[in-house]
Specification:
Shape: globular
Structural class: alpha+beta
Strand order of the largest sheet: 1-3-4-2
Order of helices and strands: HHEHHEHHEE
Number of strands: 4
Number of helices: 6
Largest sheet: 4 strands, mixed
């Protein structure tokens, strides 16, 4: 039982590591449309960061990874047992405000951010102002 208590503490500590401004921006956009708040998940951030770094290293910009992976494959790689997964990507925005404005102005990206199935989020900004947001819900 002690092992689970320690694990719960570690997971709670991981949640506290989320960039508060990023989580607040996502949840503010959701709240404005009557959607519930998302929680930060470090596995989703890891999936986002890995895809962003892959795009930079391999010189491409796509939802398909250089190895042919999609969001489902990337969620499996980080050990996230998902029933819902979505991904937003962006390039060139120099601030969180700019990337969120761009995503909210884009029908598909906005739909992902506001999706009622989403429960968790992870966002990564990598070299060259490449941004990746992963939204998901566990099974």
């Amino acid at each position: 039982m002690m092992r689970y208590a320690i694990l719960a503490f570690v997971m709670t500590a991981a949640v506290a590591q989320a960039d508060p401004a990023t989580l607040a921006a996502v949840n503010s956009a959701r709240a404005a449309e009557g959607r519930g708040a998302l929680v930060y998940d470090p596995r989703l951030e890891a999936a986002a960061r890995a895809h962003g770094e892959d795009m930079v290293a391999q010189g491409f910009f796509s939802h398909t990874g250089s190895d042919g992976s999609d969001i489902a494959a990337r969620l499996r790689r980080v050990g996230y047992p998902f029933c819902f997964g979505a991904e937003n990507i962006a390039a060139g925005q120099h601030s969180l405000e700019a990337v969120m404005a761009g995503w909210m102005a884009s029908r598909g990206h906005r739909r992902n951010i506001l999706n009622r199935k989403a429960e968790a989020v992870g966002v990564a900004r990598v070299t060259g102002n490449r941004w990746v947001m992963v939204l998901a819900a566990p099974c």
